[in-house]
Specification:
By secondary structure, this protein is α+β, with helices and mostly antiparallel strands. It has seven helices and 14 strands. Strand 3 and strand 4 form a beta hairpin. It starts with a strand and ends with a strand.
Length: about 270
């Protein structure tokens, strides 16, 4: 683990196991590892930004595979996000700080002029409620302990939009040849941010923020069943073990080796 400041915990190396952080009002568990099929750097990055006992920002960025400098783009995106939030002393303005950080990152990634790009998914937690932001196909999923989906982001991709419109079933989408194609990302001149609703988290709700390495290998129902109950760190380790095993190829199950990063968050009161 490395930190950009005392209060910004940035992960971009092989963690090897789940790492947890907590304050009085929330607990977060983090996992990140590179694809089992490559020796190049992990192009995912994750950040946990505790601001006080009741407030935090969590984010996952995924460098676009096949593009030069994916790991540079994802790291830069989270640094811009952390820097923008650090400058904002008024917690009620976090929404603007997050949006400014993403927008600034988009400009800086374009200015690299190396074709670098990344996706990003962000969650703002304040006093028991959460608001989400995302660009691309890194996903956010809020579930209850009974397995009810309270919120799910829509991937900015042709396949993601087809599922949302009811044109593709999730079981078809996870195996679709064009699942890797995205229509929105940082490093794109026409980048757009999608902001989710403000939702109060129940004491047993779990928020999952993940790069596409998770949902390209596990069905949504599998993710929900593992994460809806049990100790957070233990559940996340079981989840990432299952995704990693799936990447190695098991019969007819979905298999897409990729970098894998997940942050799981629960309210502590």
């Amino acid at each position: 683990m490395s930190s950009t400041t005392e209060n910004h915990f940035l992960f971009q190396q092989e963690l090897g196991a789940v790492t947890s952080l907590a304050r009085s009002c929330w607990v977060a568990s983090v996992f990140s590892q590179r694809s089992p099929e490559k020796e190049t750097p992990n192009e995912d990055a994750t950040v946990v930004i505790p601001l006080d006992e009741e407030t935090a920002v969590f984010a996952v960025a995924d460098g676009c595979g096949g593009q030069r400098g994916g790991e540079i783009a994802s790291s830069l995106a989270l640094k811009c996000l952390a820097d923008s939030i650090a400058k904002e002393t008024d917690r009620s303005n976090l929404r603007l700080a997050i949006m400014d950080g993403i927008d600034h990152a988009n400009r800086l990634i374009q200015e690299l002029k190396i074709g670098a790009a990344c996706t990003i998914a962000v969650a703002e937690f304040q006093k028991g409620w959460v608001r989400t932001y995302h660009v691309g196909d890194s996903q956010l999923l809020l579930i209850s302990n009974r397995g009810r989906v309270r919120y799910q982001s829509v991937s900015h991709s042709p396949v993601g939009f087809a599922v949302e419109a009811g044109l593709l079933e999730p079981e078809q989408a996870i195996r679709h040849d064009d699942r890797h194609v995205i229509s929105n990302f940082l490093g794109y001149q026409e980048m757009r941010m999608e902001i989710g609703p403000c939702l109060e988290m129940g004491s047993r709700d779990t928020l999952i923020i993940a790069s596409d390495g998770l949902f390209d290998n596990l069905f949504e129902k599998e993710v929900i069943e593992v994460m809806r109950k049990g100790r957070l760190a233990t559940s996340l380790q079981s989840l990432t073990d299952a995704a990693s095993e799936r990447m190695r190829g098991q019969g007819d199950s979905p298999c897409k080796p990729d970098d894998l990063s997940v942050i799981a968050v629960r309210r502590s009161f």
